[in-house]
Amino acid sequence: MLEALLQLTCRYAGLAPAISELAEQVGLSLNMPVDGRRVTRYLNLLADTLLVRLVPPLDVRLRKNRGGPKLCLADHALRACWLQEQVPLAPDALAERPDLTTQAGHLAESVFGSAASLVAGLDIAHWPERGADREVDFVLTVGVLRVPVEVKYQRRIDPHRDTAGLRSFLEKTVNNAAFGILITQDASGVVDDPRIVSLPLSTFLLLR
Asked: Which of 70, 109, 121, 202 has its CA 20 to 30 A from that of 94?
């Protein structure tokens, strides 16, 4: 079961699938019923091996049903080897494979989540869409201060559409966030909103 779940984690890297969905997929792979509690135990085991970083959902309202964790791989060579699939993140290489843009965006989220998880003193979570609340890819917390982060790994940034989640989070005072970060493919993805800092993924990895 651990092998089947690791393969699914590679496939869902950068995403936050429901535990029930993972249980169903593992059950189909093994041709046996698998419940969500067992999947959760095995996910935690993978996290203990440091192969996978589990980014939990942030819940300032302390709801019981918070959703599943976002799955971030510690090493994306593992995904390439396991799935026999190469997804380039270098902008020039990705430009030659525009059909992989969506998948590259998910992997960019996984790269950011894994790297941010290693920063001392920094808590990291993701913010699922809830009613009128827009989804935010990640929320970093230092003390009582929060910083929303959106990963938009594409050649062109729409300054309004691609920052909607950040602006929605920043405008709610309960979130206690003064600014947000937009992680981009390169340095051209700059927006005019003074509350939003644009930062290429490669630059963030160097800063870490």
From this structure: 70
Strand partners, 123: 141
3-state secondary structure of 45: helix
Please give the residue range of the domain that contains residue 104: 2-207
Query: What is the distance between the alpha carbons of residues 24 and 138, in angstroms, rounded to a whole number?
Result: 26
| CB neighbour class for 124 (10 Å; exposed up to 12, middle 13-18, buried from 19) | buried
Query: Which one-letter DSSP state was computed for residue 162?
Result: G
Residue from 167, 164, 116, 133 nearest 14 by CA: 116
SS3 call for 146: strand
Flag whether the pTM goes above 0.85. Answer: yes
- Which among 170, 176, 181 is positioned nearest to 119, based on CA atoms? 181
What are the contacts of 92-95 at 24+ separation with CB within 8 A?
94/185, 95/155
The tally of domains found in the chain comes to: 1
pLDDT tens-digit map of 105-142: 999 999 999 999 999 999 999 999 888 789 999 999 99
CA distances to 41, 44, 56, 67, 112 from 6, rounded to whole Å, are 13, 11, 18, 19, 19
To which H or E segment does residue 184 belong?
A: strand 180-184
- Segment holding 202, helix H or strand E: helix 201-207
Cite the DSSP H helix spans in 54-163.
Answer: 76-83, 91-95, 101-117
